Predict the structure.
Amino acid sequence: MLLVILALGFFFGMRHATDADHVIAVTTIVSRERSARAAMVIGGLWGLGHSVTLLGVGGAAVILGLIIPPRLGLCLEMSVATMLVVLGIINVTGAMRRNEQAGHSTSSGGGGPANAGGMAVMPRHDISRVLRPFVVGVVHGLAGSAAVALLVLTTIRERGWALLYLGIFGAGTVIGMMLLTAAIVVPLVGLTRHFGSVERVIFCATGLVSIAFGLFLAYKIGIVDGLFGRTPTWSPR
């Protein structure tokens, strides 16, 4: 029976990668990538950050029996909403900057640091390419660790098996996010090959969606769930 539960943990982890806030967050990041391999690396880094936090916070909850107060739980979820808004702003401002660069390149006869799609060339060694998806995964892990830990505690009483479940769940999340990011990038690459100018439109659109969803989450967490009120209500999800 425990082996069945552990197997389900892997598939639950893969499904967890497809949560709406996860999909929107990684889409804003991988919208600049131009290969499935690069996108899978981004997805793997997100999953690694998520799993590290899940094992740390969730493991502590399992071993020590920690109980997260509603206001703290809502604060952790609010960090996800804030992060989505920040990621969206980065994409929108980046798209505006690249539009200006493309216009300057055209007016000056094609010179400048833009490629055929008008996108500024990003150094492959840029450390932000590694840190950004990892940090985003960490933030998502903080917000979701309590829910996963509570689920584990209600189904698995043995701490060793519970920790193993968390590890397998994390592995499933990594694999699921790698597959998801590859699936996101493949059609985007096809579009940009046929319509080079659509690249900046996609970059801006993903940013706007991220901002809108982040603001929606902030309203729900802060007003509907009562983070800014006297009696917050929090149900780990």
In short: The radius of gyration is 20 Å.
